[in-house]
Fold this protein.
Amino acid sequence: MTLKSRRGRGGASLRYVILLGGAVVMFIPFLWMVSTSLKEYAFVIEFPPKLIPSEPTLNNFVEAWTTGQFQLYFKNSLIVATTSVVLAVLISAMMAYAFARFDFPGKEILFFGTLLLLMVPNIIGIIPQFLLAKTLGLRNSLFGLVLFYVATSLPLNTFLLRGFFETLPKEMEDAMLIDGANYFTIFTRMILPLSKPALATVSIFSLLGFWDEYVLALTFIDDQTKRTLPIAIASFHGQHGTDWGLVFAASLIAMIPIVALYMALQRYFTGGLTTGAFKG
Amino acid sequence: MNLFSRWRQKASGNRKAKERSSSRARQLPTVIVFLLPGIFLFLVFNIYPLLKAFQISFYDWSIAPNKPSEFVGLANYAQALKDPIARLAFRNTVLYTIITVPGQIVLAMAAALLLNSITRGKVLLRTIYYLPVITSWVIVSLLFRYMFQSPNGFINYILVNVLHLAETPIGWLQSASTAMIPVWLLGIWKGIGWSMVIFLAALQTIPEEIYEAAAIDGAGSFHKLMQITLPLIRPTLVFVVVMLMIGGLNVFLPVALVTNGGPLQQTEVVLTYMYHQAFDFLDFGYGSALAFMMAVFIVSLSFIQIKFFRQPGDIY
């Protein structure tokens, strides 16, 4: 017994050693990024590299935030990402509800189509999407980006939310119907409130995707004033002979909203998405 | 919430519930309203472009408004089969998938199993492992570019001056034979947390009693893993494998942002090559053919996988 418990304890500390080692490897790139962002004039790569800067400064952050149109890009990203999330989650929740609760002609084919689109990468359609945006006058338009973002996020969101909605008890809906409620009341007053964990999960994953989206924004937007953050950061890379301190200061500013949001919502993640998707 | 409990009460004593639910079938107008916005966006921005891509792939597509596009039949597809760079790009894509998918699965599974077995520091560790997932591809790609610089990058410093594993700095991005290594490592590093969180959720559904019963029978850790854990989370495992494989074959951003296909197009993957053909060389027809071949390849492979792994009780 004593031998066994000692072995158990030894096993536990070994587990911590492995996990911590892994965490160091996972985290070092971020440390390196923070460290570089605190160094001024990181054009010239110092050698040997110092993880702790000798004269740390926040000048890169000030410069990134105030130079050029960075604040405008930040605002563009904020507008595009938040509008897209609201629309994407609402529209896919509506579709998912229809799939989860109703029988209608063509349901199987439609859902199969959704799954198929889940497998086809968005970028496969980039050429005709570009031509379409041109035809519809949606190039150089933030609203155009929103429409494309919402559309491309629909298959996955609908798939996940349908799985979750199917786990909700039907009996309560039937009771509401008897009370004279219609399906829209049920949807807004029962389904959506009961699905907060799933909606939170889908929202943050969509937001991540929209906040970071690069290819469509790169391809559709020529107008400098309509740029979003990923494009701005990528262009910092070349245009300044790569002042890495500045690049990473800008990157960290762009990361703040996402990391904060993740921290705030992380309690929802443990089960919300997967219980729905895998039990369905 | 008061209202909820009233509905719940009603529901429990409701004999007509069954009859009601069959009336759902007659709710076609309601269904249409629920589906309409989604279907509309779907058709215009997803389905139409895919069909259009199919059409464009048979043309020598002209971008000038006054010059008509010329129908060339299967010429674009024939070109793709003969093009050595396209073949190389396909090989790079498959290689990326073969390396990064098992890499992510094994490391994510190990992390999930270890995290599941500890109590203190779990949330913090999980957050650290997950951080790369929530960081933008643009940012992490630039970061890896920076770390893999030569001669004075961080990785070279560690390899040459700290660990003494290399004699001289390695020119990672300058040579075709090493340029994909940072991309593979980036793909694995960024993806571990995603699979790990899904595995963790699945592991938490396994009742503790099963392990206790197995322990009484004298089963060791490895035995428990192979006989209990993996079979029980099999549907999750299949889901993750299929999703990662699709993601791997779709690789675009890390390649576009770390090597951009260079040096000399040696690290192109299919989708970066497609993008370059379309938007650098304005050969939309050839680009569409490449994209379409890739889509067909991915979808068929996914179906084969799902069919192969599928068991009663699985999703899909």
